[in-house]
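hiii so um. not sure if this is the right channel but i have a protein structure encoded as tokens and i wanna go backwards to a sequence. like what aa goes where. can anyone help
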């Protein structure tokens, strides 16, 4: 039986190859820790995947970030003081930003 060697990886396969969560791989690619997909949309070459440091990828993602927390951070970054009742950036707005491609969705 001949075993073929994979030359192209999608995000799930790349994460599996490095034995890291898919969310960590997404964070690493979105933050620039791992180069952008080089073989097409959402596809990385074997060289890029093997060059990635699994420990660095794992360490870069410190934990899950909820939409509410992301909304608070965006509000702070925009320089708007956080009111006690309602933030200027809402969790639903974070969802819209993700769908628009302006934020990286990290859910596994």
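sure thing!! here u go:
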């Amino acid at each position: 039986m001949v075993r073929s060697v994979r030359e192209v990886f999608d995000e799930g396969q790349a994460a599996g190859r490095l034995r890291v969560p898919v969310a960590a791989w997404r964070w690493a690619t979105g933050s620039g820790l791992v180069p952008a997909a080089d073989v097409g949309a959402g596809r990385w070459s074997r060289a890029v995947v093997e060059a990635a440091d699994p420990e660095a990828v794992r360490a870069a993602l410190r934990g899950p970030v909820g939409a509410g927390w992301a909304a608070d951070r965006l509000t702070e970054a925009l320089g708007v003081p956080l009111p006690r009742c309602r933030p200027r950036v809402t969790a639903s707005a974070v969802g819209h930003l993700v769908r628009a491609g302006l934020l990286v969705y990290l859910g596994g």
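oh and The CA atoms of residues 33 and 56 lie 8 Å apart.
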